[in-house]
Amino acid sequence: MDTPRTERGLKRRQALLDAATDIFSTEGYTGTTLDMIIARAGGSRRSLYQYFGDKDGLFSAVMQHHVGTMMAELEATGVEHLPASEGLHRLSSTFVKLMLSPLYLELYRQLIGLAPAFPTLAEQIYEAGPTLVLEKLHDYLQWLVDRGELPSHRLTRHTARQFLGMVKTDFQICALLAPHKLPDAEAIDAHVRNCITVLLDNR
């Protein structure tokens, strides 16, 4: 029997996750059935139940998997030892790119709509995503203070949230509601650089 701990079981589990991601993102939670996922990924209901429990468990696993993937990409930016302007640009640009990716936007849209039905999952995603992003940014800003690249009075417990809010601006809501009005990549990058200038030059 394939179990989630065997190599074959891990591949089967990932195939189900990939298929579920594609179908949830195009059909929505209510429009997705387990038969659709199994038809795409192969396997059986028995395997799906063994790995995820039920449709709710599979949806939760999809959300947690992709938040983990996004956080791993942010961790891979390697900003810990970069100068202020370069590190902030790399971290902020990666954050905006992930935030505006089509898959993230669709999963975010669905999670917002389903949060009342999945309150525990919604809170877990908030803690594993936005909360960790703020912590990573705060830690980097503290490192800049320690290096003398950011005055200590500029770093409060609100600084990371304020800077990230400035970087994020209305891009996400624009991408969700009026994507044709979203600025192009060059304009978004210019905005990110202006935010960094405001943070570093307002001393």
TrEMBL record:
PROSITE patterns referenced in this protein's UniProt entry, alphabetically: HTH_TETR_2 (PS50977)
InterPro entries linked to this entry: Homeodomain-like_sf, HTH-type_TetR-like_transc_reg, HTH_TetR, Tet_transcr_reg_TetR-rel_C_sf, TetR_C_Proteobacteria
Residue stretches making up the HTH tetR-type domain: 10-70
GO MF term set: DNA-binding transcription factor activity; transcription cis-regulatory region binding
Alphabetically ordered keywords of this record: DNA-binding
Keyword DNA-binding: yes
Protein name: TetR/AcrR family transcriptional regulator
Protein's organism: Alcanivorax profundi
